[in-house]
User: Which sequence fits this backbone?
């Protein structure tokens, strides 16, 4: 007879102990200039701290940060995330796959966060998790992270050779699992002018 965890996995809503959170934080920041944008100060702390803190506060069995620099790795570790090192400048798909390769046994769903989206709120994540995997955020028709992917998709994602980040899988998500969030919560930082004045 299946136990309660198995029942919830079948329903697409794993218990927190069957969830992983992955923060993608290994981008090259080319459009930001010579400074690492993830270390640029947003208020009183480095930009990446917002996503790391959000991940650390999300109920999960496993919390990972995919990083390319010692400084960003230190920030993630101080927030309580395990770090996976990756060479800087690779495609987002490399970061995603690096995290998926490190998933612990028994994970049923994976929450993907981007370290350059500092305004995603706790309530946004709670609403996304309530939808159950698969789910993602949306602005109008555009689908984007944060995204909640079912673990059953992982083998296929790992097999794809082309540069396909999390966005390439969002088109599979049913419309009623695409959560409309405030546009200002989903802003990302690409260039210095994207930082608040």
Assistant:
């Amino acid at each position: 007879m299946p136990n309660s965890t198995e029942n919830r996995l079948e329903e697409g809503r794993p218990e927190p102990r069957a969830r992983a959170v992955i923060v993608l934080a290994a981008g090259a920041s080319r459009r930001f200039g010579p400074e690492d944008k993830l270390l640029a100060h947003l208020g009183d702390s480095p930009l990446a701290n917002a996503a790391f803190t959000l991940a650390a506060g999300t109920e999960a069995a496993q919390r990972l940060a995919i990083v390319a620099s010692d400084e960003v790795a230190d920030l993630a570790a101080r927030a309580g995330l395990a770090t996976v090192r990756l060479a800087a400048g690779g495609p987002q798909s490399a970061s995603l796959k690096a995290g998926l390769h490190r998933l612990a046994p028994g994970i049923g769903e994976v929450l993907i966060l981007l370290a350059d989206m500092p305004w995603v709120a706790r309530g946004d994540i709670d609403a996304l998790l309530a939808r159950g995997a698969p789910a993602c955020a949306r602005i109008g028709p555009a689908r984007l992270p944060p995204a909640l992917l079912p673990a059953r998709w992982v083998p296929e994602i790992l097999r794809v050779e082309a540069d396909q980040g999390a966005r390439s899988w969002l088109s599979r998500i049913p419309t009623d699992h695409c959560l409309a969030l405030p546009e200002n919560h989903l802003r990302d930082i690409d260039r210095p002018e994207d930082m608040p004045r």
